[in-house]
Here is the input.
Amino acid sequence: MSVAAPAGPASRAARRRSSPGRRRPGSRIAYLYVLPFFAVFAAFSVYPWLDTAWVSLHDVRLSTYDQMTWIGLGNYRDLFTNQFFWNAFRNTITIGIISTVPQLCMALGIAHLLNYRLRGRTFFRVAILMPYATSLAAATVIFLELFDPKLGLVNWALHLAHLPEVDWQGSKWPSQIAVSAIVTWRWTGYNALIYLAGLQAVDNELYDAAAVDGAGKWAQFRYVTLPGLRPTILFTIVVSTIGAAQLFGEPLLYHNGKSDGGTSNQFQTLGLLMYQQGWTNDRLGLASATAWTMFLIIVVAVLVNLFLARRRERAGR
Amino acid sequence: MGRSSHPRRTAAVLAAATAGALLLAGCGSSSGNNDAAGQGAGSGPCGTTAKTTVTVGLFGTFGFKEAGLWDAYHKRCPNITVKEDDVEQSADYWTRLKTRLASGSGLDDVQGIEIGFVADVVQNHADQFVNWNKVPHAAADKAEFFPWKWQLASSTDGSDTVGLGTDIGPEAICYRSDLLKKAGLPSDPATLAKKWSTWNDFINFGKQYEASTTKQAGSHFVDSAASVFSTAVYQGKEAYDNAAGQPDVKNSDGVQSAWNYATEAAQSKITAGLEQFSPTWNKAFSNGAFATLACPTWMMGYIQGQAGPSYAGKWNIAPVLPGGATNWGGSWLGVPDKAQHKAAAIALVEWLSAKDQQVTMWKQGGHFPSNSDAAADPAVATAKSAYFSNAPVGKIFGDIASKMSIPPIGLYDTQIQQALTTQLTNVETKGTAPTKAFGDALAAIKQVTG
Here is the structure.
């Protein structure tokens, strides 16, 4: 942001007039305006990142925080040879997929439908946001009741239908599906609303024209809604990927606030593992290494998303 | 900072008595410089004559306030106001306390210390707490407690003691007499005391219960394998730490025998397979999913809370713990060396752990005294519980407390026990082979011990 030394008032004025895109002196004020954000960002994001990186290179426990032992990459080595890390890594991916994919598909469908001129449209639009407004703890408690293997409503219904009962807490896939159900329930409406906002930018005449051409609702969805929403969809995929990689509250509460993610860690996510290492097992160094690894995993995941999206876009043209 | 209310008359009398002292000390000035060893003479029984607010950091339900002890103390020491700084879960409290000990700031004048982390405080933070062997009334303080209770809060050589005891958790077996009767089994405490003297007897009795054709449908003998395990493990010579004070789960006699009993209980299907303190376990207190559970003193209150008044008289307590007497739970009160009002805090803790107050805590909240004089007091020793079919609870738990011996407790006992009981749940509910479950537990324990 170096500014060339002014040659003289006349030439400066001339140059300003000749190149309208050039920064005016007054625009430096803008730095002042954005400064608070960067100050807060430095204090509450950059500093903790660096501090976490520093801690991750040490053997240190919360109880004896003043006694740090330098072990270099020891914690990372520990992590990558650690069955609990890889288990949590796999769980994060599988829970991420079985919660994000149906969630976004349903949100798209709902947004498409809500975009039509329905009676009581505002009511439905507010209603779909209700799960998002519900407290996570309250929602999880309800789902715990529903999925309780012994007294739950879901198993009761399965029993009525003469289907085998499922251990929604102890078995791996059922418990992951149950956790994903909480995530999906909470976030579908939120994403639907974002899609709905995106749809406002799509010209209604396109739908009318499509209808005149004899396109049904499904064809309209495929040829009008989806192309119109492409940037919005990309946005929600990126945000959901980050959210899925950091999934924490639902699996924590789904095992009564324990950070092990089930008796066999069957739904322990990376976020939970990090919490367990730091606050249950007291190993801050290892937890910090996990935090940094998670950060890198998220960056990679987002880049992959963007790369795929861009390639599709190019292919689509 | 609400001042506790008390009758105006008493206030006036006490105010007159202390007015002079207050003027001399200067109202509101703190006594932060009082040295532990130096206090006592001159500053009176309250530790200070200045007007002081003593903060007390606690977790869960210590129940001092509910038992009226803060009000009582304010009457005794009108210049002292006690303010509680509460955290619901002891694990969250401990995290916060650790952070504050590491930074050396933000500590309350008095800090509650639970049995789950007392070893960590003794080993890593003893120098940050007032040593109760060096306060003026040290000898008298020490004489009041069950020796094992004092020892748990002390360094191995006994020179450093970080807290004075509050309650303890001597264990017996609580049971549903109506469920035992329904299954056609004896249900009077005297007979059960004989039939449940060892874990093998207890498990065999459980098998009879399961085999009964008249037992309540869906009901099992004991709530969880954890009930058996976490009790039996502290009946060994060693629990999770070896003689050198290092965690050694594989070679501990306590772990081995407890694991065998617990897995046998799980595999012979006498357990209900519930995770302790889970919502399903809570509900099972009233729906009859289990007939017995290991029952430290404080569990009586828990049972009443979960089962509710309609089960009064259906519950009973057998004066026995299979395999010998042991303890579950209990706390201490420590005073950080950097406490702002150290002398006042020391005086408060000494008063709280004295006989009369521990008797009050028993009468008001069912906290069994760690003060042996209090345990012998008729108000405790002859106490009966109407809810538990008039069981002589004072005598039952008092006998067990006096016979108790406890192996050393280590830094990671809480986490290690959690890892083992979690795997027991897998043996119970998923049929995991005990050897595999034990291996999985060891792997999880390795994550804790590093």
